[in-house]
Amino acid sequence: MPTRSWIPVPADSPFPVSNLPYGIVTIPDGRGPRMAVAIGDHVVDVAALSAIGLFDGVADEPLETFGAPVLNPLLSCGRATWTATRDRLLQLLTDESYRAKVEPTLLLRSEATSLLPFEVADYVDFYSSEQHANNVSQIFRPESPQLPENWKHLPIGYHGRSGTVVVSGTPIRRPSGQRKPRGADQPTFGPSERLDIEAEVGFVVGVPSPLGSQVPAASFRDHVFGVVLVNDWSARDIQAWEYVPLGPFLGKSFATSVSPWVVPLDALEMARVPLPSQAPPVMAYLKDSDPWCLDLSLEVRLNGTVVSRPPFATQYWSPGQQLAHLTVNGAALRTGDLYASGTVSGPHQDQFGSLLELSWGASKPFLLETGQERTFLLDGDTVSISGWAPGSDGTRIGFGRVDGTIVASDD
Amino acid sequence: MPTRSWIPVPADSPFPVSNLPYGIVTIPDGRGPRMAVAIGDHVVDVAALSAIGLFDGVADEPLETFGAPVLNPLLSCGRATWTATRDRLLQLLTDESYRAKVEPTLLLRSEATSLLPFEVADYVDFYSSEQHANNVSQIFRPESPQLPENWKHLPIGYHGRSGTVVVSGTPIRRPSGQRKPRGADQPTFGPSERLDIEAEVGFVVGVPSPLGSQVPAASFRDHVFGVVLVNDWSARDIQAWEYVPLGPFLGKSFATSVSPWVVPLDALEMARVPLPSQAPPVMAYLKDSDPWCLDLSLEVRLNGTVVSRPPFATQYWSPGQQLAHLTVNGAALRTGDLYASGTVSGPHQDQFGSLLELSWGASKPFLLETGQERTFLLDGDTVSISGWAPGSDGTRIGFGRVDGTIVASDD
Fold first, then answer.
1. How many CB atoms lie within 10 A of CB B363?
2. Sign of the alpha-carbon dihedral angle for B212, B218, B222, B226
3. How far is CA B368 from the centre of its chain?
4. CB neighbour class for A31 (10 Å; exposed up to 12, middle 13-18, buried from 19)
5. Which of A150, A303, A321, B199 has the greatest number of C-beta atoms within 10 Å?
6. Mean pLDDT of B172-194
7. CA atoms of B11 and A408, how far apart (whole Å)
């Protein structure tokens, strides 16, 4: 693969030419939302390139595919078109002979406004970090900490609210709701007092599957287009009171933030790592002989202070296993389905992916560089999650960031 | 309101002119999916009426609204347009002077094929029948049957899979998955052996709400367009093994069937009944001074035998309270959101809305008219849920039916 673009890329950029993540941006000229690819400090206006015929032959309907205001039409095209699109982009961005045509479509990333890159169909959140699940058990049930009985037999998951998946930068209003503090007789109402984050990795489904069919783990690459970072904001007090017996609902559904750039699987071949050993052995439908476990290092900042570096490679369940489980009952996939890993927590205290764990249930406040203490989030706090994975030729594949700032409740 | 249409309507029809439910159909001439309204044994091709200008002035963009292949554009218009649309339809169908223009757009309902009437945004399922919740507690925890502690403080709910909401008549493939029978050491894999129904009532959201805002119960009529019947198919064995701690997932996500005709709220004024008494008193945000509780009688048939008649009027939580709860954390509503009541079970044994309850956890098989016994569903079984509510002038508002036949698993 060509490794140098005629576009200068800063050495520490999350977006070398080996990455080429896809997004949807608006640009200052007032034209509508358009498909773009990030490279270095720039974005390439893919819609404009398509309009001058540079994607002819890449997709069956290039103008509809690359001129759409969301990634969904491209997502629905499937692996062959995804690869052809990436090959064409690499050609355009590395071959000097295209420079005269492509350069006018470039603009500084700082001048583009990123939108939610795809229309989310169904959103599923898993619970696939053993360390996280263990931490939660210890925090909430210190007398008998143990994983749920089913935890090592299947990747536990639930459906979230796809209509409240928002792009990085969207302000997060502190949710109100019912909660019942320990020892209280009655529930009370008010803004959440235990507002938390969950640092996660999300997988974006492109190719649908019919109702009544199963998608094996081995078909992961045929259905999944790429990867985003996810912050699954969580109101722990609301969640704790509501979640028995039907699971999280309002404690999660107020907002889920995603990073604006969808990193294609094709950029992540070098980041693949083996599946951790799984005992007891998994059922046949969960076997994943070619897993897409990723050496993806997350970094969580709170008001600028790095508070955690969760390692995604420590997840117990692979994304292919999650996909196989999600569809084993015949549930259909749709273009734009998003499924997330669940909170990523590594074995060390500075690798936990939630404030619940970092403050050990609010019993151990942690320090920011400003000298301030935190357990859960205060109004005005800004959380920023970034991620990096090894790329080809010694490059690093960045995932950009998923940011959010807490806005006070109206209540 | 005019009570007689120039279209003959059989006396026992679910679709008198006081009903006028909306659907999407295909018709034998091969034209694409189109908006239709059911009346008697006929459907009126609303798209065709719109194309000849008969809905001009009713919506801002009549052709886009009434010519769409889903109800969503109409749903998004809001209450004023919904009322104007209904008024126009009543005029067209009761005033003989329109007969010459309208008659050519009629066709027999039996010749139309109903499609899923709206694109489902998010699907939420509640758990709002006290009798059902009590039954479930007694069946699973006979030694200490009690409602969950939160049950009378908030309408418990969870998000389902909107991508597997299907229209009545869609075959339901028996789902496979993991289950762990009581007393077994290890989970096993295979087709569900406890496939069940849940007879429910669904509410279709038309008008969206912005992220970060709350929708009060009093705004129910401004946001909710109409009502459908729902069969929330459930694999009890899969659900029982998976649902701790994050709630139902694969035990539900394989399919949820809805009736093809969305009955508008305007047709249900006469069916409104008071909110049951609620003790302890509900929090301020759950007060509903103008509730849309409905005297809606469901009927569940299994292979033709009526096995239950669940009365929706016995629900503990009102649809307005459910809407207020759903959004109290600032979760946005979208056009096409669907939320369902949860299983409707009345106080008597022949009013239970699931086979789990009708067979009391498979301990008491019940008889069909054929002499066959049932507990859970067998392959080839057909379930049909219908519903009726009182209409104006002594008419009855029918909801049509939500049907489904079980197809054997491939596993």
1. 8
2. positive
3. 25
4. exposed
5. B199
6. 96
7. 57
Q: pLDDT (tens digit, 9 = 90+) per residue, B222-272? A: 999 999 999 999 999 999 999 999 999 999 999 999 999 999 999 999 999
**B119: Cβ–Cβ under 8 A, 6 or more apart, which residues?**
B70, B72, B336
> Which residues from B are below 8 Å from A254, CB to CB?
329-331
Residue with tokens 């339809």: B89
Query: Is residue B153 among the annotated active site residues?
Result: no
> Is A165 within 8 Å of A125 (Cβ atoms)?
no
Q: Tokens 């909660």, residue?
A: A179
What would the two tokens of residue A314 be? 């420590």
Distance in Å, alpha carbon of A154 to nearest chain B alpha carbon: 8
Number of H helices, E strands in chain B: 10, 26
User: Please, are residues A297 and A387 in contact by the beta-carbon 8 Å criterion?
Assistant: yes
- Nearest to B73, CA basis, from B335, B410, B377: B335
Inter-chain contact B254–A170, Cβ cutoff 8 Å? Answer: no
Distance (Å, whole) CA B26 – CA A311: 52
β-bridge mates for residue B293, sequence order: B273
Across chain B, mean pLDDT equals 96
Instruction: Check: CB of residue A62 under 8 Å from CB of residue A50.
Output: yes
Q: Residue B17: which of B399, B400, B391 has the closest Cα? A: B391
Tell me how far apart the alpha carbons of residues A343 and B164 are, in angstroms, rounded to a whole number.
Answer: 26
Query: How remote is the C-alpha of A88 from its chain's centroid?
Result: 26
- In angstroms, what separates the C-alpha of A131 from chain B's closest C-alpha? 16
Q: Could you give the ipTM of this predicted complex?
A: 0.97
A164 and B332: CB-CB below 8 Å?
yes
Q: Which of A127, A187, A331 sits opposite B253 (nearest CB)?
A: A331
Q: Which of B17, B105, B6 is nearest to B53 (CA)?
A: B105
CA distances from A331 to A119, A338, B162, B353, B403 (A): 19, 14, 10, 24, 19
Q: How far is CA A373 from CA A247, A304, A322, A362, A366, in A?
A: 31, 13, 37, 11, 5
Q: Which of B161, B177, B330 sits opposite A159 (nearest CB)?
A: B161
pLDDT class of A144 with cuts at 50, 70, 90: confident
Identify which of A124, A189, A254 has the shortest CB distance to residue B331.
A254
Structure tokens given for A379: 């109004």
Q: Give A177's contacts (C-beta < 8 A, 6+ positions apart).
A: A189, A192, A235, A238, A242, A250, A251, B328, B329
User: Which chain A residue's Cα is nearest to B240?
Assistant: A150
Tell me the C-alpha distance between B408 and A198, whole Å.
40
The gap between the terminal CA atoms of chain B, to the nearest Å, is 55
Report CA dihedral (A319, A321, A324, A327) to the nearest 10 degrees: -70
pLDDT tens readout for residues A340-396? 999 999 999 999 999 999 999 999 999 999 999 999 999 999 999 999 999 988 899
Mutation target vs B (from A146, A249, A410; most B CBs, 10 A cutoff): A249
B148 pLDDT band, cuts 50/70/90, is: very high
Residue with token string 């507690």 = B137
Which stretch of DSSP H or E encloses residue B84?
helix B79-94
Predicted TM-score (pTM) of this structure: 0.98
Structural tokens at position A86:
């990436």
- Nearest CA of chain A to the CA of B271: how many Å? 30
pLDDT band at B386 (very low <50, low <70, confident <90, very high): very high
Q: Coil, strand, or helix at residue B86?
A: helix
The letter for the amino acid at B20 is L
Contact call for A173 and B121, based on CB within 8 A: no
